[in-house]
Design brief:
Structural class: mainly alpha
Number of helices: 4
Helix content: over 70%
Strand content: under 5%
Largest sheet: none
Length: 100
């Protein structure tokens, strides 16, 4: 017997995991791109992604690079958009798949 509730829960779990994976990759790529642009070790920047909230990442990279926080935050927003476009090109659109 088909259990629609179970199927919908499984779909929700897989969609959530897929979206979380996309967001993590986007933050990691943006942190790496920002670090490279500012002359900071990209590996150190990527390590921040797992331990900090998204809004704290550019502040820490700014401290490592010795630049103003506002400048790093604006640059990070730019790199987030670039990372999003790159990932959509590589992995497809992250929006949930709708059941028709």
């Amino acid at each position: 017997m088909f259990d629609l509730g179970l199927a919908l829960r499984k779909k929700q779990e897989s969609e959530t995991a897929r979206l979380l994976d996309f967001e993590f990759r986007r933050r990691a790529r943006a942190a790496r791109l920002l670090a490279e642009a500012l002359g900071v070790d990209p590996d150190a920047a990527i390590g921040l992604v797992a331990t900090m909230a998204e809004d704290a990442i550019p502040l820490r990279i700014a401290a490592l690079a010795g630049i103003a926080d506002a400048q790093a935050v604006a640059a990070f927003q730019h790199w987030l958009a670039v990372a999003h476009q790159q990932l959509v090109g590589e992995r497809g659109d992250p929006r949930p798949h709708r059941l028709a």
